[in-house]
Write a structure and sequence with these properties.
Blueprint: E1 4-8, H1 15-26, E2 29-32, H2 33-46, H3 54-62, E3 66-71, E4 74-79, E5 82-83, H4 92-100, H5 104-118, E6 123-127, H6 130-134, E7 140-145, H7 148-161, H8 168-184, E8 197-200, H9 206-219
Parallel strand pairs: 1-6, 1-7, 2-6, 7-8
Antiparallel strand pairs: 3-4, 4-5
Helix pairs in contact: 1-9, 2-4, 3-5, 4-8, 7-8
The chain binds 2'-deoxycytidine-5'-monophosphate (DC).
């Protein structure tokens, strides 16, 4: 039976890579909810809407049409027909997404869409509040974690690979601020769901994490 798998955790804990691989193995759909918050931040910037203006951001988010599709190994994201795949990954949009996601109006606007995508099962969804708020009845909830140093190292490496000139210390500092913001906000903060399995990926390679989640999924009926 196709089940719903929720994968939460802080920045660069490996959620995206692992969720994608698990979805591929099981033939499930992968839903990247962070991409939606990133898109709201980007479109707000383009419309000169402040990341602090919850009510206006909420209206903006509610009016967006999202389309997702796989292209080779990349999840392409279209918003109102525009391909924003690359632009939402710009570094500024990480903090932008974190900022717009603090507002209840924005979360409410995206919640129905996310729950709709998860309703039929056969889905791996990653984010910060999937196991706690979006899919509280998911048959499998995983919380991926890793030390701040290791996560910053991964993010730094990824940015350097993309040709960006950044210092590790700056990447680490920005990540720490973002995680604190995500974990301390009033609505749907990042936290471990009571029934989640916590997996520390600091010393685990991606294939090992994927196998562990696949085994857990099999135990839960996938
Ligand atoms: O997973 P990501 O780095 O693409 O997410 C970007 C930001 O979006 C993250 O810092 C907080 C927010 N977010 C959220 O609040 N809830 C989610 N389910 C997913 C992301």
């Amino acid at each position: 039976m196709p089940i719903a798998i929720a994968i939460d955790g802080p920045a660069s804990s490996g959620k995206g890579t692992v969720a994608r691989a698990v979805a591929h193995l099981l033939g499930y759909r992968y839903v990247d909810t962070g991409a939606m918050y990133r898109a709201v931040a980007l479109v707000a910037r383009q419309h000169e809407v402040s990341w602090d203006d919850g009510p206006t951001l909420g209206k903006l988010a509610a009016g967006l049409r999202f389309d997702f599709a796989w292209d080779e190994d990349v999840l392409r994201v279209w918003v109102d027909g525009r391909d924003l795949t690359r632009d939402i990954r710009q570094d500024g949009m990480s903090m932008g997404a974190s900022s717009v996601s603090r507002h209840p109006e924005v979360r409410t606007a995206l919640l129905g869409l996310q729950q709709g995508l998860g309703a039929q099962g056969g889905v791996v969804m990653d984010g910060r509040d999937i196991g706690t708020v979006v899919l509280p009845h998911a048959q499998l909830k995983v919380y991926l974690d890793a030390s701040l140093d290791e996560r910053a190292r991964r993010r730094h490496e990824e940015m350097v690979r993309r040709g960006e000139v950044v210092h590790y210390d700056d990447v680490r500092a920005a990540m720490e601020i973002r995680d604190r913001q995500d974990a301390t906000r009033d609505v749907a903060p990042l936290r471990v769901a009571d029934d989640a399995v916590v997996v520390d990926t600091s010393d685990l390679a991606v294939p090992a994490v994927v196998r562990r989640i696949r085994d857990l999924a099999a135990e839960r009926g996938a």
